[in-house]
Specification:
heterotrimer, A mainly alpha (299), B alpha/beta (420), C mainly alpha (294), A: 299 residues, 2 strands, C: 294 residues, mainly alpha, globular
Chain lengths: 299, 420, 294
């Protein structure tokens, strides 16, 4: 048996082993996205009796003049930005805490993962109840502490509704960030800190000069994951506010869902999917470049 | 050996299927529909009466969420996917064009006679028509109207207002001369209710939202802008409380019930609520058709619920028997008398038994005759959402009336495909 | 000791009166625990309160015995069919998890061990795919479901759930395979096993722990999924827990069923709480090797 023959057989086996998984991925990931791209050049809605009619760039032109699309993009950007900042901050605090040696650390770690593991739709129900105007515990606590005089209509006022969904998402996903950062912290050798302390560095200095640079990859990866998930947020908002009041918490996902499932505007929905996909890919590509440059620097 | 065992198995399976099918055919046919949970409770009595009279049909009412939008979305998803669990669509007036345009409903026109249809309120029948077919049998009707305080009008010596100007004059007089704080409450939150208010006002100015035959959009014509300016003016002149931009029906009614406001735009149910024992306004209120511009006609926005039949139901005949029962005069009369709803059949407004319970239905018929539908276009949900956004922006002072209506008209035209 | 600033400071100030570092640490621990648990505990408490206690102002934090009840739980199973929803969720999650492991592990092995042209590209694609929000897929999947008549069919959920868990499975399993000593496989080859036999008889038994880890993650994702379940299941008898619970939301106009809603949350989350309690370490391990090392 020649070396080439063995290699060929190995390759064939390899492809065979990957084939089923790749087929499923093609069906569930590649088909829908290519299909949306294709459909975005057609008008397929109630005015065409739900039949696709080629219409070129019409859907994209519509989008430019569609105030609701821009509002949903703005809402998505605000939601993503604030959840990311708070999750990173809180996640870092929790990761640093859980990295310490203390009695009951295992239990604390278990508790800290809990929010991440629970179903978002059910958690959204819990937060909707917490933010209830009349009977909600959040208003009650704030009033007992005399921080507010009258109950706040958390989910009924545009500004507060956005604050509420951001708070709920931060709660739900901070633990994911914390888990990733904790893994980074655990891989840092203790000797580094000791040497640094001997050099007379303050804790703050060693945090900035050792901890942060060394967990930078984990931070970037956590942020990348969280960015993609926040950008596509659906279940939390759908259950908590449905995108209301008056579209104040409507993200792109909620709008896409309404365009397809409520308006039966498949062509326009497809164009919205395509644009969302492209924005996402662009951001991921930029961060990818950034990561590889970061890696190149450290190596 | 193997073959015989195989054959035996085959016979056994065939026998099971046959026996199963036989048993199945003895089972009553189940006719299912989704409706808001509150209404499911109310309609349970009628359903049981029907099932007692028709043992071969079982009615299954699935209890849905109470937001009409959410029910619409559930029906849409079910029909869109195919394999709809529902044989009947229990439908708000504004859904019919969408469901009919999508081909999800049976045309009922050959099942019901002209004579029978003539007994219903014309607007209610019209709301079930789409491109020449009849897709909805009216059940209970609904329409917007003006409620007013008779005692306050007497106090300032004015007649009930007919025109927009009358309303403002009366409201200002009452606010100046009595201790009532506000002149007029209505529904200003960004939701379908705001649109129903607007439909009455724009029609009162002689304008229109969308012409269903030409798909022409009239929002940015003078009447449309005047209508929005009237609504803005109510708030600017402090005739309506500033909070009205967050009001739904209950909020505006509560102000009226508590005696804080002279005029109220609301649906028929508000009558019983405001006249309830112990409210300070009980017995001091009256209702009339909505105000309008001088030289124009009053308009009442049509609401209400009815039945359509799914085009994919395996049991269209049984479904029709259910629909026929619910919409026939006897059951309808029982239902509206028990739960104080408005009938879709004209004769019931003047029926002595109904009038004995609800004397005001005679007046209500006058309102019902001014009822106008919301535009019966397939994209109704979409154009309504657009209008809601811009109306809300205008009345909460984020846009001028003219800008808001121009933008709303532009987006609506693009959705309807008539921007050229 | 450990990594963090405040403890790193202790050697310099060994005999200070109050151990500020420890105080700060315990404050941070208390924060972490309260932050993570409070919303869940509040929902648990609500689910056991009577309706009167739920809508009492000011809010009841410590209900008396007469303010506690089990009726909300009883109602879930008596008035609503929560046992059906639980079964649906369990069935869909378990089947898709098994499928996902069965399809994902061979692929992961191929990517870890066999030299395949384009391996890096495939890996990169798999990694990027984990970032896609489900909303991008739902329109195309909706068309597939309609075209194949899969509405109200478990397959309409099982196939997408298998797929959304495949990238993670491939990444996690690949990193496990890479850690496996290569000698084993070499000696198996010497003994005359072909690749498939070797995978089945030798590699699989050794990767059982990794399969459990990945399976738990896949199960959690499948159990929690909302968008596809909301769209592809319209019959009551086919709905999964998250959708059924969310739709319980507005079934009465005048009295929102806070109690049953809270109970539904507890019932729907309990299986996952148990998973986390028993498999905390594995979950952390899986998540980190899936995203960081991949």
């Amino acid at each position: 048996m020649s070396k080439d023959y063995i290699r060929q057989r190995e390759q064939r086996t390899g492809w065979l082993l990957m084939l089923p998984a790749l087929l499923v991925l093609l069906l569930v990931y590649a088909f829908p996205i290519l299909r949306a791209f294709w459909l975005s050049f057609f008008t397929e809605n109630l005015s065409t009796n739900l039949e696709p009619v080629f219409s070129g760039l019409d859907n994209y032109e519509l989008m430019v003049g569609d105030g609701r699309f821009w509002q949903s993009m703005r809402n998505t950007a605000v939601f993503t930005l604030f959840t990311l900042v708070f999750e990173l901050g809180l996640g870092l605090i929790i990761a640093l805490t859980l990295d310490q040696a203390f009695r009951g650390r295992g239990l604390a770690r278990t508790i800290a993962i809990l929010p991440w593991a629970l179903p978002t739709a059910l958690i959204a129900l819990a937060w909707r109840w917490i933010f209830n105007t009349e009977f909600g515990v959040w208003n009650d606590m704030l009033m007992r502490l005399h921080l507010i005089g009258n109950p706040v209509n958390w989910l009924g006022e545009p500004f507060w509704a956005m604050v509420a969904v951001i708070a709920a998402d931060v709660w739900k996903t901070t633990s994911f960030v914390a888990i990733l950062l904790l893994a980074g912290l655990q891989s840092i050798s203790q000797d580094l800190y000791e040497a640094h302390a001997l050099d007379g560095a303050s804790p703050w200095q060693s945090f900035r000069q050792i901890t942060l640079p060394l967990i930078a990859p984990q931070i970037v990866i956590a942020m990348l994951f969280r960015f993609a998930q926040s950008f596509g947020i659906f279940d939390l908002i759908q259950v908590m506010t449905g995108g209301g009041p008056g579209g104040a918490t409507e993200t792109v996902s909620i709008y896409i869902y309404a365009a397809v499932m409520r308006y039966l505007d498949f062509g326009y929905g497809a164009a919205l999917v395509t644009v969302t996909f492209l924005v996402l890919v662009a951001v991921v590509a930029v961060s990818w470049l950034y990561i590889s440059r970061l890696r190149a620097k450290t190596e | 050996m193997r073959l015989s065992r195989f054959l035996l198995a085959l016979v056994a399976i065939a026998a099971t299927v046959l026996v199963g099918a036989h048993v199945w055919s003895q089972q009553p046919v189940t006719i299912s529909f989704l409706l808001r949970a509150v209404e499911a409770d109310q309609m349970q009595g009628l359903a049981e009466q029907f099932m007692a009279e028709n043992p071969d049909i079982r009615i299954e009412m699935v209890r849905g969420p109470n937001a009409a939008d959410a029910v619409e979305n559930l029906y849409t998803t079910s029909f869109l996917l195919g394999d709809s669990p529902y044989d009947i669509l229990f439908s708000d007036v504004v859904w019919i064009p969408k469901f009919a345009a999508a081909g999800w409903l049976l045309d009922l026109s050959d099942r019901v006679s002209e004579a029978d249809l003539a007994d219903f309120l014309p607007a209610d029948v019209a709301a079930g028509l789409y491109q020449g077919g009849l897709y909805r049998m009216p059940f209970r009707s609904d329409m917007g109207m003006l409620y007013y305080r008779t005692d306050l009008l007497d106090q300032v010596g004015l007649a009930p207002p007919e025109t927009f100007a009358d309303l403002i004059t009366a409201a200002e007089a009452i606010q100046a001369q009595t201790d009532v704080d506000w002149g007029f409450t209505w529904q200003g939150l960004q939701y379908e209710g705001l649109v129903t208010n607007f439909v009455e006002i724009i029609a009162g100015y002689g304008g229109f939202w969308i012409d269903p035959t030409t798909l022409e959009v009239g929002l940015d014509q003078p009447a449309g802008v005047q209508a929005v300016e009237f609504m803005k003016g109510l708030i600017d002149q402090r005739i309506s409380p500033p909070g009205v931009t967050n009001y739904i029906e209950e909020d505006s009614l509560r102000q009226f019930q508590n005696g804080n406001v002279a005029f109220l735009r609301n649906w028929p149910y508000a009558w019983a609520e405001a006249n309830r024992d112990g409210t300070p306004v009980a017995g001091k209120i009256a209702l009339k058709p909505m105000v309008h511009a001088a030289g124009q006609q009053p308009a009442a926005c049509l609401g209400g619920w009815g039945f359509g039949i799914s085009s994919t139901t395996p049991h269209p005949e049984e479904a029709w028997r259910v629909v026929e029962f619910f919409t026939s005069p006897g059951p309808l009369k029982d239902f509206i008398t028990e739960f104080a709803y408005v009938p879709s059949r004209r004769a019931l407004f003047t029926d002595p038994d109904v009038l004995a319970t609800f004397p005001h239905y005679e007046q209500l018929l006058k309102v019902a005759e001014t009822a106008v539908p919301r535009p019966p276009v397939g994209q109704y949900a979409q154009v309504s959402d657009i209008l809601q956004r811009y109306l809300s922006a205008a009345i909460s002072d984020q846009m001028t009336a003219e800008d808001a209506m121009r933008a709303a008209a532009g987006e609506s035209r693009r959705v309807l495909g008539v921007d050229g | 000791m450990t990594t963090v600033p405040q403890t790193a400071a202790s050697p310099q100030t060994p005999d200070r009166g109050i151990p500020w570092g420890r105080v700060l640490l315990w404050l941070a621990i208390a924060f972490t625990v309260i932050f993570s648990l409070a919303p869940v505990l509040w929902q648990v408490l609500t689910s056991f309160k009577t309706n009167a206690a739920i809508t009492q102002a000011p809010v009841v934090y410590l209900p008396g015995f007469d303010q506690l009840t089990l009726t909300h739980y009883v109602d879930l199973f008596r008035l609503n069919q929560f046992h059906v929803y639980m079964l649906n969720s369990a069935l869909v999650a378990i089947v898709s998890t098994v499928l996902c492991l069965a399809l994902g592990s061979p692929a992961a092995y191929a990517l870890a061990r066999l030299r395949i042209p384009g391996e890096q590209a495939i890996l990169a694609i798999v990694l990027v795919v984990t970032l896609f929000p489900y909303i991008l897929l739902f329109l195309g999947l909706l068309e597939l479901v309609r075209a194949f008549g899969l509405a109200n069919n478990y397959l309409a959920l099982i196939v997408p759930y298998t797929a959304i868990n495949l990238p993670l499975t491939i990444l996690v399993m690949r990193s496990f395979f890479q850690q496996l000593p290569k000698d084993l496989e070499d000696s198996a080859r010497v003994d005359g096993y072909n690749t498939v036999q070797m995978l089945w008889r030798i590699v699989l038994p050794m990767t059982l722990p990794a399969l459990v880890t990945t399976g738990i993650l896949a199960f959690i994702f499948a159990w929690n999924e909302y968008l596809f379940a909301l769209t592809f299941m319209t019959r009551e008898s086919m709905k999964t827990i998250p959708v059924a619970a969310a739709q319980l939301g507005g079934t009465t106009l005048f009295e929102v069923p806070y109690g049953p809603l809270a109970a539904a949350t507890v019932v729907g989350t309990l299986p996952l709480v148990l998973l986390v309690l028993f498999f905390q370490r594995r979950i952390v391990q899986g998540l980190t090797s899936g995203s960081v090392k991949g």
